[in-house]
Each structure stands twice: as structure tokens, then as C-alpha cells.
Amino acid sequence: MTRFIGNGKVLGAPDSVYYLPDFISVEEEQTLINKVLTAPKPKWVHLKNRRLQNWGGIVMNNGMIAEPLPTWLTNLHPRFQESGVFDGLHPTLNEPNHCLVNEYLAGQGILPHKDGPAYLPTVATVSLSSHCILEFYKCPTDSEPRMDSPSDSRNQEPEFSILVQPRSLLVLKSDVYKIYMHGIREITVDNLAEGNILNLKEAIPGMDLSEARAQQLERGTRISLTFRIVEKTKSGKKFLFGR
Fold it and tell me: What residue ranges do the domains of the chain occupy?
């Protein structure tokens, strides 16, 4: 059953961090995995620490050259609307128009980063196949760290962390979107006794906190679907000819 994201507010975290376990079913998860893995080879971009697919258009500092999202991604839009994920962001835009698909093999991660000014301040991530621990670092300045660039915060301990399980939805909004960086360590096993993981009760139901903290979770291949709204969009012709 779809739930309102307000019911998934992570206690102890800054405002506007929401975690909903089992946002999609096992069958829906497998369908999405199959769609990602059978996408045309040219859709994959290979980076040093992961590979990714870009859906919805090419995002630039001044907006996005827009193209329609495929149906297998827009099928999640009614659930986002029912849950209130993108409510209140914009007078007319209430559905995501961009999705970044990342595939992380065990041991792969991403340096602390912010998502940048092209997006409205809400990001909704659906996770598939494996867990990860997302770590949050307070930005030392108002500057925008470049995606995947080295950051001084990597030498610091995270302020808090979220255990993200398969089929869950993680939503970051408002201040936590704007003033925190988030990243994933490049390790193969997560020791839940380490770090300030705030949502163990929700991410590992049926287990008390002492038992949960004693767990060590081995990572597999994780696929993340990161949905956002780009406010400024144009057709390819308008970008090329300035019309």
C-alpha cells in the first residue's frame, strides 16, 4: 500500500528526509531491473566508479533538452503523486521529468556531492537489487561541489547516514537537499554498528536496535532510479537555435 511520505519522516535527521520501505513490490522491482539491463547499449555511460543511464534529456546549467521518459519509468508517477513526493515544488510541475539510473557493483560508490541548481529541491530515489548506506555531510560553504570531485568532507565523519534497502523510496527535500552533500563509501560490506544510521528500525523491521547494529550486510549490485524535476526545459531545436 502506498503511504504518504510524511509518515516516513526519518527521526533524528534534519527536516525533509523521508524513507518508505517496500515502496514497490518484488515483481515491480524485477520488471524495472529487466528494463534497465535490456536498455540499448548506447544509453549506458561508463564512469570510473559506476555506469549510468540518462532518461528525460540532457541537463545543462540553463535547463534541459527535454525528451519523454519511457513508460516503464512514468508508471511510477501515480505512486509519487499519491505519496505527495513532489507536492508544493512548483505551481504546475508535480511529476518528475528526469531520471538518472546508476548501477553500482559491490565496492563501488560515489564521492559526496550535491545535485546542482538545475533541479527543483526534491530528489526521489528508488533502489533495486541491493542495499547501500547513504552518508550525509554538512556543506562547509555555500559553494556547489562538482559531481564526483574530491571533497574535504570525505576526510570527515558523516553527520548521519541512512540505510537504503531494495524496493525502498528515499526522498530528500528542501534544506537537506540544499545544504548537505551525500555520498556512498567504496566498500563491499557495511557494518551497521558504525556511523550514525538513523533509520535502522524502519530498514530492518522485526529486529531490535542492538540486533540490527550487530549486522554486517554484504553488498551486491545495486541499481538506483533517481527522479527529479528540471524546471527549465526546451526542445532540442530551441536549444540549438535559441528560439
Answer: 5-233
